[in-house]
Fold each of these.
Amino acid sequence: MSGLLLADERAAVVALAQRMVRDRLVVGTSGNVSQRCGDLVVCTPSGTDYDTMRPADVVVVDLDGTVVDGDLRPTVELPLHLVCYTEHEARAVVHTHSTAATALSLLRDDVPAVHYQLAMFGGPVSVAPYATYGTTQLRDNVSRALAGRSGCVMKHHGTLCTGSSLGAAYDRARQLEWLCDVWMRASAVGVPALLPPDEVERVVERFGGYGQPPTT
Ligand SMILES: [Zn+2]
């Protein structure tokens, strides 16, 4: 791997993409991962099997999306990632097609406050309206849903979470899927009780700032 631009960061992106498959947050080649390094972004390539992906397959682009290094095309969802870096101060982005969140997106416009962990996103989490994948319309819908938050659900699609590191973004992706799963399970047998908005706000303050729990 010697001589590869941002070799460690590319390896970290591969490792996380493979973990998404193991953790069932994506199926096949769906979903994507990126992290920002200065004015560059390291992102998963389009349509490549995560099991056989190597660091050299990971693409390096600038903040306009121009490829700086790499032989493959960047993920078709690159506009989603770039807007998180240019508009939302993210350092890493994880986009999943996880089951419970996608199912919830067919039923609701927000993620119900079934658990205080919702506060790790900075407050109530929205479901971004549907638009065709890879379009600027989807980018804009997601950017609006992310205002003041570190994650959102995407209708008929999946989730998108940001963080100060790949690990932080990934933890949010798993937590968001879990929150949606809890609601789906509870609502399958009844009408779930929800935390009142002022309690969610109280926990947001306890977590501090942009929703980073003090324990992580
Ligand atoms: Zn997607």
Amino acid sequence: MARLKPVLAELKAYTVPATPPPVKLDANESPWPLPEDARRAIGDAVAALPFHRYPDGRATELRAALAEWLGAERDELVIGAGSDEVIAMLMQAFAAPSDGRPPSVLWPGPSFVMYRITGLSHGFVPVEVDLKPDFTLDPDAMAAAFAEHRPSLAFYATPNNPTGNAFDEATLRALIEANPDTLHILDEAYGPFAREPGGSAHSLSPWLAEYPNVGVLGTVSKVGLAALRIGWVRLRPEMAAEIEKVRQPFNLSATAQAAATVLLTDHAKVIEDAAQSIVRERTRLHAALAERDMDPQPSLANFILARVPASAKEALLAKGVALRFFGDPRLDGWARITVGTPAETDALLAALDSL
Ligand SMILES: Cc1ncc(COP(=O)(O)O)c(C=O)c1O
């Protein structure tokens, strides 16, 4: 143990309960299972795989399907086993000291916990800049932190997890323009929900054409395919080629590649329908939480942050409802509620009303 990285003493393994409760609103998954025809098509594609061979390391077919779906070029994409792995690849590629100091990674928070965990385990100095009390960006604090730390990487989850809001675009642009030596990663894990009901999703990916120091992170985990573990970052091709050098040779299983390719090629409507239905249900859930004076925050994601005392956690679980509570003192008194099916919203509201 003596030679383990000392920073591991600060970290805890990421664990999730083994038996999920009936109303699982704690992990920002889609509540909708895949329809039968999509499952059958995936089954056929998987049954035909050459299981005795390594998978295609470059994920050629999935890359083509994903590029088409995103409107991206194939060589702009680095694909990983979830965007978690892509975050780790970015960290690995950028874990070099600069100006004689260890590398640093900056993000506005509270936000996605893996920026800190992955940063620490790759030797980065983590720099989390507090959001304002209303969870918007603090432009002065961000500018000051950039000036002090000159981070190699910056991550912005927009819409942000767990607050649900998207960050101000003018502020983001100013930070990207003022800090050309930083690679700024716009994490759009929740991008498919960044829309009003009936509208189409808003993405910052057009910024790739404007800024060489920007990447856009994405995932299919939130739109119904969490089990596959497929995420990506879209970057200028010359930067993508550098990140590819740290990718494990066979990082995506053949089964995940085949399933995701079938989905994105022939059943992409399933993904769009799930996003649309979640956005509609989000409006209903928001109104119901507001009626109960739970101060639901405006959300462009597939979850809503609302006031729920931590003491309600076990009582809700006893009624079969799991929400996400946090150890972070800035999130005391708040819970993150994933948008479920209409029936799950009913069950949640009944459980809340009974407490
Ligand atoms: C902001 C954000 N980015 C990235 C991820 C990672 O998603 P995945 O590894 O499933 O693609 C998550 C998951 O919760 C997230 O909230």
Amino acid sequence: MTESTRVALVLPIPKLVGSFAACVAVVAEERRYLGLVHGRSEGETREFIESVWSDGGQVMLAIDGDLVVGWCSTIPQTSEGFTHLAHIGMGILPEYRGQGLGRRLIDNALGWAWNAEYERLELSVFTDNEVAVHLYRSVGFVEEGVRRRARKLDGQYKDITFMAIFRPDLEQNPPSA
Ligand SMILES: CC(C)(COP(=O)(O)OP(=O)(O)OC[C@H]1O[C@@H](n2cnc3c(N)ncnc32)[C@H](O)[C@@H]1OP(=O)(O)O)[C@@H](O)C(=O)NCCC(=O)NCCS
């Protein structure tokens, strides 16, 4: 059995919150892939999950036993005029990457979001994160623009690419402006 075939996708339950916080911390502390460079505490992680749920979004966890090895959050916008869209964020522990788990998580998030009747999903990704950009393009996200030198960390700049995808029925038949 490979590492990825052991992995299940589940909604957060209380006993997984600490492991979820630890998983985010590992990816954040790589300082390469996320805007976040430090993890959140267990309490902050619980509050994050509850706030996403109360706004009508979803947090999906990838678990290997009781170890959270990845996540994908679908975070709704709540301001009036923007409630048709949600923002995607995801990450996977280094040893679980490159085995199809990212694709499983993003496919799950798209299916969930379209079923929940969101119309547009957005994300931002460091432009040099070729694996993530490739994955997002492959499921239909389209680049909308680049913020140049948008982050300066450890003396190094990174550009940020904005990507978005529309619900398939809207892409075929765009509503009138
Ligand atoms: C980006 C990330 C979520 C992708 O998930 P993953 O499980 O590693 O990717 P998958 O195994 O599902 O592969 C997705 C695609 O990327 C390709 N890919 C995966 N790893 C790769 C690598 N190291 N080099 C080149 N291509 C790679 C796969 O071949 C696949 O494409 P294909 O189906 O056309 O062959 C994951 O690598 C990760 O968590 N990275 C660090 C955190 C991060 O970047 N988060 C996103 C911030 S916007």
Amino acid sequence: MTTADPATDDTPRIGLGIDVHRLERGLRCVLGGVELPGDLGPSGHSDGDAILHAVCDACLGAAGLDDLGTLFPDKDARNRGRDSREFCTETLSRVRGAGLRVAGLDVVVECERPKIAPHRAALRASLASLFAVEIARVNVKGKTAEGLDAIGRGEALRATAIALLVPAR
Ligand SMILES: [Zn+2]
């Protein structure tokens, strides 16, 4: 296997990340680093921010690095209740360490609640800030599951993210 060197290889790198969390009543709902209103939030070992977890995995995947679960095992007590924005800081630092920068992010969030559309602008701004990329190069879309499966019954939420990385120079 040859490892591409960002110093000589201009080829963009693409990565995909997917994350699912259960939704439970009475939990804070933090998604994309933004606290959304409502009585339902994702459960998980960290703060359950499925958007940030999916975006981190997309970026790490594009850079050819270990995934989030390997870098921050959920068995590690230090990651209990952890603010997922810290995972973004670490991910961005590793992406930069690989000589790359984020050039585009697109995210689809599947859930019945919370409604994503009213918060799209805030989510885009938050992701743009966390991953050091222009807002125009970041998008977030909400989808429902038409009442089908666990997501359709409002028991879970799934975020799917795709990231484009390019050489940092
Ligand atoms: Zn997660």
